[in-house]
Amino acid sequence: MDMTRLKSHVLAPLLLGIATCAMAASASAPATSAESDATTPAAQPRATRPAQSGYLSADAVDMLAVLPAAPRPGEARYENDRRIFRETRALQGSPRWQLAADDADLSATAMLRDFSCSLDIELTPQQAPRLVQLLQKATHDGAQSMLKAKEYYKRQRPFWIDEGPICRPRDELGKTYDYPSGHTTAGWTWALALAQVAPEHATAIFARGRAIGDSRIVCGVHNASAVEAARLLTSAVMSLVTITPAYQQDLAAARAELAGLRAASHLQPQPARCAAEAQLIRVP
């Protein structure tokens, strides 16, 4: 698969499905809407407006020189990935399995819902366009490095190596690659950025962001090593993103926006749902 096809399968849903809709659907600019909140990673985004750029230049960091090589057949890491995939198939049909399926949705609406318990506020993209803009741009930078690594290693996903159920339809993924995980890149980027926007909730935010990566293992669509690599990649990229003046400016705007939303009448997530989610994200 060449880079153009890989971007159409991975980068467009990852960027447009997460956040483009929020910026375009804000009350100040309804005419430019590129609404894709119903988009999941499997669907082709309806928007035609290209995703905005991030905070870094394309060559800011060479993650191929930083990431460990993808596991190869015969290596201990490769066999460990296979063991984890086989053992986690026992989660099929469980509440954690369902959470993994739900975590596959990277739309802005879904991601804000996923982090609502950890943020202690229910938000929509229309309410928080500055927050989502920050998250989109930061995710763009991690996604670019992630795609280069996927194309370089071309590692098969675990269900092409061993038989077993997965929590999403296989045709959603086509022949896209495993290493590193794009969903983990998105989830961990959101966690790192949201923890800076709302540092008083950092522990819960990090736990939820970690769980999005774990969900890819539970779902059976990524190997454990691909999730670990994505977290390393994202942390390294974000260390550079966060020192840019543009990020700091957007961070201040996102903090002010969230503070204003908290000060006004707002919805809080249901305690029972949050308690159940807190239990689930401990598995495995």
Provide a compact summary of the structure.
The protein is mainly α. It is built from 11 helices and no strands. It has helices at 3-24, 76-88, 95-102, 108-114, 116-119, 129-153, 182-197, 202-219, 224-241, 245-263, 271-280.
Overview of the structural elements:
- It is built from eleven helices and no strands.
- It is mainly α and 284 residues long.
- The protein starts with a helix and ends with a helix.
- It is globular.
- The longest helix is centred in the middle third of the chain and has 25 residues, at 129-153.
- Helix 3 (95-102) crosses helix 8 (202-219), helix 7 runs antiparallel to helix 8 and helix 7 (182-197) crosses helix 9.
- Mean pLDDT is 86; it is low at 1-10 and 16-51.
* Share of helical residues: 55-70%
Task: From the alpha carbons, calculate the radius of gyration and give it in angstroms.
Answer: 18 Å
* Protein structure class: mainly alpha
SSE pattern, N- to C-terminal: HHHHHHHHHHH
Shape: globular
Runs with pLDDT <50, length 5+?
Answer: 1-10, 16-51
Multimer state: single chain
Distance between the termini: 32 Å
Q: What about the largest sheet?
A: none
Counting DSSP H or I runs of 4 or more residues, the number of helices is 11
Structure keywords:
about 280 residues, mainly alpha, about 55% helix, about 0% strand, disordered N terminus
List the helices and strands and how they pair.
Layout: H1 3-24, H2 76-88, H3 95-102, H4 108-114, H5 116-119, H6 129-153, H7 182-197, H8 202-219, H9 224-241, H10 245-263, H11 271-280
